[in-house]
C-alpha cells in the first residue's frame, strides 16, 4: 500500500522583524520592484497588522495592512512564487480581510497592477470591485504602470438596517 501525502497544514502568525530575511527573499522573487527591508521595518515598528503564512514552519507568504478609522488597506500581500497556484494567496487574503474586520474596518482597499491577471482574478473572486485607477502608480520596465484601486465592503452577516449611502 502506498502512502498518500495529505496537504500540509498552513498556519498564520504575526509577522516579526526576525522574518525579514525570508520576507526579502520572497519579495525579490515575487516582484520586479520589491519593497525594501526598511519599508517592512517601518510598517512593523508602526504597529501595522501583518501576517506570516507558514507551511511546516517555513515562511510561504506574508501580508501587511494599515487600518485607520473604519478602513483597512492591504499594503502588501505576497506568496512565494515557488508556492503559488495552491490556494495560499486566497488563504492569506481571507485572513487579512478577517483581520481588518476584527479591527473594526468596514471596507478594505488595495491596489493591483492591471497586468497582474492572477491577482486580479483572485481579488474579483473574493468580492473586491474596481473603484478607480491611480495613473503611473507602479514603476515598470518602460516607465510607469497604472494601479487599479479595488475595494470590498465588510458587511455583517445579519443586517438589521440598510447602511447609510
Structural notes for this entry:
This protein has 165 residues and is of the alpha+beta class. 27% of the residues lie in helices and 36% in strands. It contains 4 helices and 7 strands. It has helices at 20-30, 37-45, 88-102, 117-125; strands spanning 10-14, 50-55, 58-68, 71-79, 107-112, 129-140, 143-153. A hairpin with a 2-residue loop joins strand 3 and strand 4 (71-79). The longest helix is centred in the middle third of the chain and has 15 residues, at 88-102. Mean pLDDT is 88; it is low at 1-6 and 158-162.
Topology readout:
Layout: E1 10-14, H1 20-30, H2 37-45, E2 50-55, E3 58-68, E4 71-79, H3 88-102, E5 107-112, H4 117-125, E6 129-140, E7 143-153
Parallel strand pairs: 4-5
Antiparallel strand pairs: 1-2, 2-3, 3-4, 5-7, 6-7
What is the overall silhouette? globular
- Spatial arrangement of strands, main beta sheet: 1-2-3-4-5-7-6
- Structural class of the secondary structure composition? alpha+beta
Distance between the termini: 61 Å
Summarize the main sheet.
7 strands, mixed
The amount of helix comes to: 25-40%
Write down the overall mean pLDDT: 88
Uncertain ranges: 1-6, 158-162
Report the C-alpha radius of gyration, rounded. 17 Å
Strand content: 35-45%
What is the helix tally? Answer: 4
Count of distinct strands = 7
In brief, what are we looking at here?
The chain is of the alpha+beta class and 165 residues long.
Which labels suit this protein?
165 residues, alpha+beta, 4 helices, 7 strands, globular, disordered N terminus
Amino acid at each position: 500500500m502506498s502512502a498518500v501525502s495529505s496537504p500540509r497544514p498552513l498556519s498564520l502568525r504575526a509577522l516579526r522583524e526576525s522574518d525579514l530575511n525570508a520576507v526579502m527573499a520572497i519579495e525579490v522573487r515575487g516582484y520586479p520592484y520589491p519593497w525594501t527591508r526598511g519599508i517592512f521595518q517601518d510598517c512593523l515598528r508602526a504597529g501595522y497588522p501583518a501576517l506570516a503564512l507558514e507551511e511546516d514552519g517555513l515562511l510561504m507568504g506574508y501580508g501587511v495592512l494599515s487600518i485607520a478609522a473604519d478602513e483597512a488597506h492591504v499594503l502588501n500581500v505576497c506568496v512565494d512564487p515557488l508556492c503559488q497556484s495552491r490556494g495560499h494567496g486566497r488563504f492569506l487574503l481571507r485572513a487579512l480581510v478577517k483581520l481588518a474586520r476584527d479591527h473594526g474596518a468596514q471596507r478594505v482597499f488595495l491596489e493591483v497592477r492591471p497586468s497582474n491577471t492572477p491577482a486580479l482574478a483572485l481579488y474579483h473572486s473574493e468580492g473586491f470591485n474596481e473603484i478607480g485607477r491611480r495613473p503611473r502608480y507602479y514603476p515598470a520596465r518602460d516607465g510607469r504602470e497604472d494601479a487599479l484601486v479595488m475595494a470590498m465592503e465588510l458587511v455583517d452577516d445579519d443586517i438589521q438596517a440598510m447602511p447609510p449611502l
